[in-house]
Design a protein that fits this description.
Shape: elongated
Number of helices: 29
CATH superfamily of one domain: Hypothetical protein af1432
CATH architecture of one domain: Orthogonal Bundle
Strand content: 15-25%
Number of strands: 22
Helix content: 40-55%
Structural class: alpha+beta
Bound molecules: manganese (II) ion
Distance between the termini: 90 Å
Radius of gyration: 40 Å
Strand order of the largest sheet: 1-2-5-4-3
CATH class of one domain: Mainly Alpha
Amino acid sequence: MMRQYELVERVQRYKPDVNEALLNKAYVYAMQKHGHQKRASGDPYFSHPLEVAAILTEMHMDEATIAVALLHDTIEDTTATRAEIDDLFGPEMGKLVEGLTKLKKLDLVSKKAEQAENLRKLLLAISEDVRVLLVKLADRLHNMRTLDHMPEAKRLRIAEETMDIYAPLAGRMGMQGMREELEEIAFRFINPEAYRAVTARLAEIFERNKDVLTDIEKALSALFEKHAINASVKSRQKKPWSVFRKMEAKALSFEQLSDIFGFRVVVDSVEDCYRALGAIHTTWSMVPGRFKDYISTPKQNDYRSIHTTIVGPSRQRVELQIRTREMNKIAEYGVAAHSIYKDTGGKTNGAGHAISKETNAYAWLRRTIEQLAEGDNPEDFLENTKLELFQDQVFCFTPKGMLIALPRGATPIDFAYAVHTDVGDTCVGAKVNGRIMPLMTELKNGDEVEIIRSKAQVPPAAWESVVVTGKARAAIRRATKNAIRKQYSGLGARILERAFERAGKTFTKESLKPVLHRLARKDIEDVLASVGRGELASTDVMKAVFPDYKDERVTPAAPKQREEGWSKIRNAAGMLFQIPGRAARKDKDQPRDGAVPIRGVRGDLPVRFAPEGAVPGDRIVGIVQPGTGITIYPIQSPALQAFDDQPERWIDVRWDIDERTKERFPARVSVTAINAPGSLADIAQVVASNDANIHTLSMVRTAPDFTEMLIDLEVWDLKHLNRLLSQLKDNSSVSDARRVNG
Ligand code: MN
């Protein structure tokens, strides 16, 4: 295990003014906190953060990042707390360590290849600081290096996650060295056979071509010497994973891929890059279409290099990468090469690329982080410059670990619709991170959301103003429209049943089929909905179904009286119909044959209440209002007289109360109060203490000593209303209280 002084020395080598005290303090603190904890390998646990720190020293990271590496598992795995780390190391360090703790929680989430892209974005969103990501990647690299010690069941999952999430992330951060090592180890665990085969073949080819490679290297070196270019030439070993991936992706044979030799030419300055290129191209012929100048046009991860392929000295194809030392460092370490600390020398070499000012380094890091969220492809870049793509998103999980990307401000309802339209349509509640939360809750990154569903649910139209996703909005609108349409067609069916009955016929939906064209409607549901909405008169439907139907010819005897207390009334046209008579008022609320069940405003019919209200316990009747649905009146309501001559608009209805989902119903009362201070408060008090609600209150008449007011109440039922009225009457502030139309 690396000693404390060794670690300090390592950092000192590239950063002479290192803050030794910080490193020493972090080393001792982490070692003490992890104490006797052991890794799966049997090694002391502390060896892990120490190795992670060592990986970061290879990238020449600053001491703050190294210290964070030492501390990275303390909050999660030991008694250490954020507050303690804030105290000892300052809040900046505390925040970084906490960032890593948050990322660690993600390890528990199942990762599927198809959600890798979103997971990387979530990682970025949670990290906030690039140093957190660097430590996370180094942490992952060390875990991969020691993957052999993990239980076999876990190895494959961790290897796949590395291949899908972390290796590409390292690549996007420009850290090719890290990427290649992660891929190499992951490949070995994911597909051991292929890994062995490809590795063996590569070694074999390397052996066979050793001499050729030496020849090419010599020829190149001689060429640069001739042109007085100071260059180091190295052959590049092909990596097993990249060979295997290309074989699969491009369906190429091993030979097609491996007969190309790769060399890297590292020079002192940008001028030398182009001079070297000129010398090469005038000596050997280049392979067309293979030249790329990433110096004049860097890749978005800041990778800079010239790529070309030539037909080499012994007629083989040779791939060349030409770059400066600075560019090579960036290609190898990416983000880390730019590091957060000032380049100690502060010198700018010929590449003009060294970052000597801290502000530049930060700007570059910010830009990189923003770009990390986007594609590898420079072509994609223009399309993806919308940064809100990443900043305006939140990433949440289903309980099964599926990742759902949503716009910022999204609610559990949006989440439900993002999972599936059915889930959204039947959503009645949500658990966020295991706790029941309101459906309006704004979701945060990393939230686990469980949707509570009910088959009986119809999405309320009001949700439309709550959701932020187009998908949810469209689905809610569709569901609302469907529900309303269903209500109207249900009402239409009732109206037609009555009309047929009056004519002594039995209504069936099938009877509408032959007359659809005559009614200019596309299907039966359409006819029913049109009748329900009042756009199509029931008599027109009758005439279409029975061509010789005439209102006057209907025999008056047709409908049989179903119940005592219902009056037969003949209208002006001589039609006979029945309405509830005075006697019906005394009836108990027994269901009547053919009566439409009414469940407040949320039943299967478009129902509203008369302005004076109606409450369970009232005998009620429905009046069809073309275009709006049914209005429910208490049978005693004088307003009903207005409909006496329109029997076709009367609908037989009854209460259908679900005891489990108790609803309140409207009732209007008139209260005459004594004008005295506090009398209004007295009335409100009586209402409140009786568990009723005041919906609206208006003064109708004010005399010097009395005020008459109308109060629209919400009550459970008639008993509740009557109890309330008698208590109001008993109140000393009230001289009279009675139901309007009661
Ligand atoms: Mn760790």
